[in-house]
Amino acid sequence: MSRDVDSNHNVTFDCKYHVVFCPKYRRKVLVEPIDERLKALLSEKATYIQAEIVEMEIMPDHVHLLIKCDPQYGIHKVVKQLKGYTSKVLRDEFKSLKSRLPSLWTNSYFVATVGTVQLDVIKKYIEEQKSR
User: Fold this and answer.
1) What is the pLDDT of residue 116?
2) What does the pLDDT look like over 50-73, one tens digit per residue?
3) DSSP labels for the chain?
4) Domain holding 82: CATH number?
5) pTM for the complete prediction?
6) Which residues carry out catalysis?
7) Residue range of the domain that includes 30
8) Which site among 47, 59, 66, 121 is 20 to 30 Å from 128 CA-CA?
9) Measuring CA to CA, how many Å separate 9 from each of 13, 31, 47, 71, 80?
10) What is the pLDDT of residue 120?
């Protein structure tokens, strides 16, 4: 089995994380057209901070991401950047989000490391979220 590894100037790594986060009060606000805009914003910001979203699914009341990032930058910084950026832009563009929620995202999130063996299983799980 070959591994797809990345490298910065002093660390070679293959770090992937399954991340799940929810809107405040788990409100079902991530629906058309907000969900499509959220996908675009997450991809845009991930590229900007040099993280890679390997897989993504937006459910009405939560977000699943499979993220590959530099361990020296840290998954906590990636999640903070993604949530902060998307909250600001979405609440500016969709006024209904401002009136329904004091902030878009909860402060908490779920994160688990994903080993190479688990990668296909996690990707399939995220891909199948919409069909449930």
Assistant:
1) 66
2) 999 999 999 999 999 999 999 999
3) -----EE-SS-EE--EEEEEE-BGGG-----TTHHHHHHHHHHHHHHHTT-EEEEEEEETTEEEEEEE--TTT-HHHHHHHHHHHHHHHHHHH-HHHHHH-SSSB-S--EEEEE-HHHHHHHHHHHHTGGG-
4) 3.30.70.1290
5) 0.87
6) 125
7) 13-131
8) 47
9) 11, 41, 19, 12, 24
10) 79
